[in-house]
């Protein structure tokens, strides 16, 4: 199993645990808020590089 697959499986497991422990709206807020907060902590140059890589991979 690749490293990305392990991270994805861990994220799914964490999401399911959050849905069991918290109300659905709180779990949704955490699931959407953490990646948004991580994106906002990047420099403008890092954000630009991330958008470029994403666009390039979509064309594959």
If you had to describe this structure to a student in words, what would you say it looks like?
- The protein is built from 3 helices and no strands.
- It has helices at residues 3-21, 24-40, 44-58.
- Helix 1 (3-21) packs across helix 2 (24-40).
- The longest helix has 19 residues, at 3-21.
- The chain is flat, with a radius of gyration of 15 Å.
Q: What structural class is derived from the secondary structure elements?
A: mainly alpha
- Give the N-to-C terminal Cα separation: 23 Å
Over the alpha carbons, how many angstroms does the gyration radius reach?
Answer: 15 Å
| Cα shape | flat
Oligomer: single chain
Total number of beta strands: 0
List low-pLDDT spans: none
Major β-sheet profile? none
Q: What are the secondary-structure elements, in order, as H or E?
A: HHH
Q: Count every helix, treating DSSP H or I runs of 4 or more residues as helices.
A: 3
Strand content: under 5%
- The helical percent reads over 70%
Q: Estimate the mean pLDDT confidence.
A: 83
């Amino acid at each position: 199993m690749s490293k990305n697959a392990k991270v994805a499986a861990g994220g799914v497991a964490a999401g399911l645990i959050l849905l069991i422990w918290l109300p659905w709206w709180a779990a949704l807020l955490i699931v959407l808020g953490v990646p948004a907060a991580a994106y906002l902590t990047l420099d403008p140059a890092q954000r630009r590089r991330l958008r470029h890589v994403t666009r390039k991979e979509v064309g594959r």
